[in-house]
């Protein structure tokens, strides 16, 4: 394993134990590409948030967030132009997007999502939150599917659905942590229905915790059809990729179930999965991958009512 891939592997193992566990099920070549793509996504997220591997730095980053965003945009575009890059993260990125012919649109969509963070975008309704979910996770799902060899637009929609499901789960799990750094991804209209002001102070107020739990439950309920839709993409993946993605879906969905089960105590400590649970999900994911090979309807039902990149982005 060369130095670029090794650094990317270290990033995913430290930055996302859930995804690292699932990615270990890929074949070597696909696994290394997934590492390299993830390393760039993680790096960009950290730069925007002033964090390191998803956690606060010892010293707060006081630099201009718009300048950090512009730096990411310029380096990403330079990588696509084939310009020489020295940063290992962008070396990884350049290698993987050219190897798998990933259209520039999707990395730029991810960066657009990060720009929404920089601009303190307000999510007025559920459609706004779903659009954000596409930008910061659905687009990643599309890119990862391309790394796995997918080019069929209907299958890419299923990959996008999985990313959106992941992001709705992440938003629900991190409501309190996000509010602490000035971020609110919950639909303002849903908070209004619970008589909770659309402010970080209101979300952090202990008296509002039951209402926040209800909003989180509602968001996680909305994630379910996206997880269900994503499973119809599994039969179209190479077998080991199908196994890895089915496992990742089970891990993330379990996190959401944990948030729902804990109710207003869901944010007293971070909801996660143990090593033993991950092993169990890998076994179950193997069963999902095998079953997908015998599914009669591999296309799946229509995605009626689900957020769709080809139409909703045009609004």
Structure in a nutshell:
The protein has 315 residues and is mostly helical. Helices cover 67% and strands 1% of the residues.
What does this structure look like?
67% of the residues lie in helices and 1% in strands. The protein has 315 residues and is mainly alpha-helical. The chain folds into two domains: 1-119, Farnesyl Diphosphate Synthase (Orthogonal Bundle), CATH 1.10.600; 120-315, Farnesyl Diphosphate Synthase, CATH 1.10.600.10. Helix 4 runs antiparallel to helix 6 (105-118) and helix 7 packs across helix 8 (153-173). It is globular and about 50 Å long. The mean pLDDT is 90.
Low-confidence stretches: none
Mean pLDDT rating: 90
Oligomer: single chain
What is the CATH third-level topology name of the largest domain? Farnesyl Diphosphate Synthase
Radius of gyration: 19 Å
Largest sheet: 2 strands, antiparallel
**Would you count the extended β strands for me?**
2
Task: Name the CATH architecture of the largest domain.
Answer: Orthogonal Bundle
Q: Tell the overall outline.
A: globular
What number of domains? 2
CATH class placement of the largest domain:
Mainly Alpha
Number of helices: 15
**How do the helices and strands follow one another from N- to C-terminus?**
HHHEEHHHHHHHHHHHH
